[in-house]
Records
---
Amino acid sequence: MNPSTMSPAATTSEAAAPATGAADHLRHDWTADEVTALFELPLTDLLWRAQSTHRRHREPDAVQLSTLLSIKTGACPEDCAYCPQAAQYNTGLKPEPLMDTEKVLTAARRAKEAGAQRFCMGAAWRSPKDRDIERVSAMIEGVKALGLETCMTLGMIDAEQARELARAGLDYYNHNIDTSPEYYREIITTRNFQQRLDTLAHVREAGMKVCSGGIVGMGEAREDRAGMLHALATLPVHPESVPVNLLVRVAGTPLADAAGLDPLEFVRTIAVARILMPASHVRLSAGRENMSDELQALAFFAGANSIFHGAKLLTTSNPESQRDIELFQRLGLHPEHHAMVADDVAIPGTSALAEPRFYDAAAR
Ligand code: SAM
Ligand code: DTB
Ligand code: SF4
């Protein structure tokens, strides 16, 4: 069975109020202390709050599926300590120039047949050149014509580049803040945290949806995981998509031997992301290959509602499609019917930590 043949979820939008007649107010004024306090709750309390929040905003058993493709691989001038594509680390990766549009479209067609709703194209650039934007625009147009949502991650972009990508029809731009502002300089020295925020602002101003999250398991402290989520949740508009990556430790990178993160701390990170950004897609991203079904089940219970589907991420492997199909069957999950748009709509009068009201799919 292919995920697209599993029974789909009803289409919803955050703009629509739950059956009780109101949605939670989306807060952008979370304090660092509040975020830390969430991390420090007893696990069952944290999971209860996260799942209750999840049910107020999202259909509980629906999971959005995105498929990744590396359209330009390796030889990157940046020094991100986690990344197999940085030229300065010897990871054995073979660099590949920007792919031909036709090859990208072939991969996109396959992703669609395998059940993906969104096709995410990644390039190992510090920032694209203007002529690169022209070339990737043709890819965006072609992928959209297949009926897929489009996402790109090309590094830093300026305001005009963002407008051009939006004009080409790009739905989402991914640019991760990666970690807390404080820990950032331990991980990347070739560009700073503010430059990340500037790119996110350009994406937002151009009218595209924002995909931004980070990586855990890089030796950061809990306060850095809290700081990363605080930075995302206090943006003027929450990112519609929040990928939480568990570091894939790649030989040759400075983080190849990073100590593994306690799996329950990973689950806590997902749960806090869900509580802070109730209407967003929280993606259980890189790192699933080494996770048990039980750990993934807990991450879904904590509010994850998106995954990368398909046997490859950008350069490293991801669970085979069949394993995910069996996981969905085992857990009673199903793919979202088609991508739900996470509108960041504030409806005043309720608190994110109030008593739960439950999403009623039948009412939609
Ligand atoms: N070069 C562009 C950039 O950095 O913005 C786009 C591609 S880059 C590979 C996209 C994201 O992949 C990074 O921001 C990082 O969050 C994630 N990533 C890269 N290597 C990873 C790893 N080993 N484990 C987990 N996530 C990783
Ligand atoms: C994101 O947050 N994770 C994806 C996507 N956005 C671009 C990338 C994960 C990359 C993992 C390492 C690799 O495969 O190269
Ligand atoms: Fe380059 Fe992106 Fe990898 Fe950093 S994360 S080294 S910018 S490809």
---
Amino acid sequence: MSEKSERIVGAAQADSAGAVFGEAERSAGDVPSRAPSPRCAPPEALLAAFDRKVAEESRIEPGDWMPDDYRKGVLRQMSQHAHSEVIGMQPEGNWITRAPSLHRKTILMAKVQDEAGHGLYLYSAAETLGTSRDDMIAALHAGKAKYASIFNYPSLTWADVGAIGWLVDGAAIVNQVSLQRTSYGPYSRAMVRICKEESFHQRQGYQIMMVLARGSAEQKAMAQDALDRWWWPSLMMFGPHDSESAHSAKSMQWKLKRESNDTLRQRFVDQTVPQADIIGLTVPDPELKWNEELGHYDFGEIDWAEFMQVISGNGPCNRQRLAHHIRAKDDGQWVRQAMHVFEEKHRARRQAA
Ligand code: FAQ
């Protein structure tokens, strides 16, 4: 653990989660218990207290005792989530200079900035677990930490910006609404705010698609082509089938995950297919069919070989996405240095006064 990480663990343990997101971020029913953890209690008692908190739907807070595997599990998921938000800026960022009007450009810029903000909340929330943002980013750059597979597909046309908002943000919300009840306090509070913004993102994407679908034959074809290319990768966002999901059993037991990959994927399909119908677009799945008995859509099998390729670093844009992130970090190094020097200068002045 780096010196900076150790400082962060110390701060997180000594301080409350309110210091991470501020008191204003908490809802009335979401106030963490501030009773100090009985750190000198025997391990079985600590584990029993942790299990009880999880069972009674209390949030686990940064200063609370938690099993090491839980800490690692939350950190893995939160850091991957943070990386997804930030890498996810690239496909849409690609269209900021080419948006079809000033109005669309300002909306898209605000949306992409929101994603940066989501990354920042999540990195801050993850830092409460005793690692630094620098360490998390180093793991991303070394290929040790993943980010959502969807962002390794190219955004080829303006309709792709619509499809990303409609489908990718749409899938993200379905997942994140359930994560508002995740057991780790800072993560669940970050999700409340993020969901509000993602919901706006989803609508703006759908509205782009609606306008294109109502437009000329060429515009409608562009919208259909975007749906054709983004549909299956959106379904992959929910991860492997429950039967193949390495982390689900533990994560569900800890209430880190509240609903399974397949349950969330089905919910996304059920809510999105009627939206496609309304704007006259066709979901590219010949096996898609309403199942009256189950009250759900049946749908075709995902290409899992493609999914595995993408999450192993071999998707269409994996290398480009990481190279861009590394370049942007290097290019911003002088800004971070200048900020540290400025901070030091002011601290020295305050101390001298
Ligand atoms: N892509 O055992 P499971 C957004 C990996 S935010 C890449 O089922 P788990 C906003 C998984 O990490 C989108 N890797 O894993 C936005 C694990 O590998 P590991 C991000 C994936 O964690 C919109 C292995 O496969 N949202 O889009 C994927 O229980 C527009 C085994 O899988 C979140 O991160 C995948 N799709 O379930 C931004 C939500 N699926 O770690 C910009 C939080 C699985 O052992 C523009 N995360 N893997 O090396 C979660 O809910 C979960 O982590 C899942 C995966 C559901 C993603």
